[in-house]
Design brief:
single chain, mainly alpha, 79% helix, elongated
Length: 190
């Protein structure tokens, strides 16, 4: 009886995460669709290019997915020290990603493009909305990652009990995929 309840609980948690990720996907699909439609406007910046620092942040977030995966692999093998190191590496890479994102925005501002006001354009306003909305989700991911790190130090996970870890990893991979999609989308559609 208890294993059936536990299985249902596990399935419910996974389903809730999938619903949340699908909702986020639909939000970004709507925004990128509006981006495409708006690109036909006469005030659209046809020559706008993303600063190269956004490419660096893309590579960094991809590496963070790899370290999170390696952390789960270490968990499955019972290598707690390696698991902790990979989790800290993931956190460090996440913070580097955020740093490079803000650095990219600084470069955009230095070029004279702002989110709102006389110096803004519809192109950069869309870019700000896409990236900042993604960053909000990354901050959520940082909270989840921090909880996983704390629980790892409390020995809350084992090869047979790792649901929270797996859900966090799935969400992290989703955030990474979402950023890669946004980066490629904006790069192609400029």
């Amino acid at each position: 009886m208890e294993s059936t309840l536990q299985k249902k609980n596990t399935e419910a948690k996974k389903m809730m995460l999938w619903f949340a990720m699908i909702s986020m996907t639909m939000t970004f699909a709507g925004l990128t669709s509006a981006y495409v439609v708006s690109s036909s406007r006469s005030d659209w910046l046809a020559s706008f290019e993303l600063p190269s620092v956004f490419l660096y942040s893309t590579i960094i977030i991809l590496l963070s997915s790899i370290t999170f995966f390696l952390g789960k692999k270490a968990l499955n093998q019972g290598k707690t020290v390696s698991q902790k190191l990979f989790l800290w590496a993931t956190l460090g890479l996440a913070l580097a990603f955020i740093y490079f994102q803000f650095n990219g925005f600084s470069q955009i501002i230095e070029k004279g493009y702002y989110f709102t006001g006389a110096e803004s354009s519809i192109t950069t306003s869309f870019l700000y909305v896409l990236v900042l909305l993604h960053l909000v989700h990354v901050f959520g991911g940082l909270i989840v990652l921090s909880i996983v790190i704390v629980k790892t130090y409390k020995n809350a996970y084992s090869p047979s009990d790792k649901l929270g870890y797996e859900l966090a990893e799935l969400f992290w991979h989703f955030l990474d995929f979402l950023w890669i999609y946004l980066y490629v989308f904006v790069t192609i559609n400029n």
